[in-house]
Amino acid sequence: MTPLFQLPIDVVVMAAGKGTRMKSRLPKVLQRLAGVPLVQHVLNTAAQLNARSAVVITGHGADQVEPLLLAPGQALAVQCVRQEPQLGTGHAVQQAVPALADDGVVVVLSGDVPLTQADTLQALIAQCGGKQLALLTIDFADPTGYGRIVREGTQVQAIVEHKDASEAQRQIQEVYSGIMAVPAHFLKGWLGRIDNQNAQGEYYLTDVVKLAVADGVPVVAHKITDPLQVAGVNSPVQLAELERAHQLRQAHQYMEQGVRLKDPARFDLRGQLDCAQDVEIDVNCIFEGQVSLGEGVKIGANCIIANCTIEAGAVIHPFTHIDGEKLGVSVGEGALIGPFARLRPGAQLGAQVHIGNFVEVKNSTMAAGAKANHLAYLGDATVGERVNFGAGSITANYDGANKHRTVIEADVHIGSNCVLVAPVTIGAGGTVGGGSTITKSTEPGALSVARGKQVSIANWQRPEKTPK
Ligand code: UD1
Ligand code: CA
After folding, report:
1. Helix-then-strand count for the chain, H and E
2. Residue-by-residue DSSP string for 138-162
3. Which three-class secondary structure state does DSSP give residue 163?
4. Helix (H) or strand (E) run with residue 178 in it
5. Is there a contact between 294 and 333 (Cβ–Cβ < 8 Å)?
6. Which pLDDT belongs to residue 438?
7. Consecutive 10-residue runs of the chain (468 residues): their mean pLDDT?
8. Closest by CA position to 110, among listed 147, 60, 57, 69
9. Could you tell me which residues come within 8 angstroms of residue 49 by beta carbon, excluding any fewer than 6 positions away?
10. How far apart are CA 86 and CA 59, in angstroms?
11. Which ligand 1 atom is the nearest neighbour of the CA of 113?
12. Which atom of ligand 1 is nearest to the CA of 59?
């Protein structure tokens, strides 16, 4: 058998529709599923097909949609073509004709159908084989609103839209998904011949089926059983339903790899997550961007973890918020973080570091064994091995105009409620007394205290309340 998928594939994505039922200022195809715009899901799938090009039909909200599509970083060559006004799906694909080569297979997709799998499309393309019109179809118990697949014997004869269908045709449960694969030269010819003589006065893409039959080009249906792959988003309810279904599928994939999720229904991944062996994740955690979890890592309940690498054996206690954004966050082997900790961009924590409740770390390195267990802020700091940073202490890194660095060398002990005013260095092995405001660097091994001296007045009489 010839490997049919070697035919050049050009994808057409219909994304001009209004999405009225979303009731949003944001165009429908820019609404996010698992953190990614709907239309980007479609383009990602197209990229998995190794498509030669993608032509996206834009219309409503084109000014917002096109910059995303044309942004650098798209895996395949994307062109945008405007459809103004929107006269139907056939009219939409007509707009793409000048941008389409004649020698390829065209795969028609919708920008609001995000979860079609590449292997399904590969099978559809194989059915097309560069010679036939292949339709992706599915049986629905309630096919209301969909185009029905009308057959004579087993041969597909037409797609009849719900509004144009007879009572008998409305009984048909096999519907057109909105996805087809078709040789470009046939498609171009047929698009030139469709009209809008139908119940909606629209140019229907689905009319190409009749034209194929008239031309003697075989029409084949590739029927699938998984409704999620053809589900479109029209309303916030449908968006939420697809989100949950998609998240549940992702959760099951991770569990199959051995990740122990306390509850797959309470797991959200909006990016890339890599897990080594024996990772445990408690309920209600959200992972975003690029996250990597080493062997035996445990994530407590209600954590948000984004753009972060966590090494083997580290434990992230409940309610911890980590977001490395562009700089990233790294957590070393066996570190203990949280509960209620906040790690911000550039936090680089070594092995066995402890970060306790209400501690914020930003753009700071903490060497192995360093600890900040309670109520602290470390910003723009370089913290040596085994440093103990006391409760309530902070680095004052910002003078109102510029940020400065604080260096705390190995084995330093910072007492409670200290302010280290940067730029400043605390020498190795030094101690800073509780309540100190340190503005000058200190020598290694020194005890530094910078606070008002204690005064005690014996037998002090408190003032009494004056009678009225
Ligand atoms: C279409 C199919 C129907 C199929 C259903 C599956 C036609 C005529 N009918 O119906 O057989 O069962 O999808 O969901 O194709 N769009 C444009 N420009 C337009 C019109 C639509 O870009 O002028 C886009 C929409 O934004 C959407 C997609 O095309 O992404 C499908 O349009 P929609 O109106 O949802 O098609 P249906 O009427 O549901
Ligand atoms: Ca319609």
Report:
1. 8, 36
2. EE-SS-TTSPEEEEETTEEEEEE-G
3. helix
4. strand 174-183
5. yes
6. 98
7. 69 95 96 98 97 97 97 95 97 98 98 98 97 98 98 94 98 98 98 97 98 98 98 97 98 98 98 98 98 99 98 99 98 98 98 98 98 98 98 96 97 98 98 98 98 96 93
8. 57
9. 5, 9, 11, 107, 118, 121, 122, 125
10. 7
11. 30
12. 22
268 CA from centroid of ligand 1 (Å): 30
* pLDDT of 2: 46
pLDDT of 1: 43
Which among 162, 185, 374, 413 is annotated as catalytic? 374
pLDDT at 153: 87
The domains found in the chain, sorted by start residue, are 4-230 (3.90.550.10), 259-448 (2.160.10.10)
Question: CA–CA separation, 33 vs 239, rounded Å?
Answer: 7
| Cα–Cα distance measured from residue 291 to residue 20, given in angstroms and rounded to the nearest whole number | 36
Q: What is the pTM of this model?
A: 0.93
What is the whole-number distance in angstroms between the Cα of residue 310 and the centre of ligand 1? 45
Task: Say which ligand is closest to the CA of 59.
Answer: 1
Question: 444 by DSSP, 3-state: which?
Answer: coil
CB of 160 within 6 A of ligand 1: the answer is no
What the block records as the tokens of 405 is: 């660095």
**CA angle (120, 122, 128) in 5-degree steps:** 110
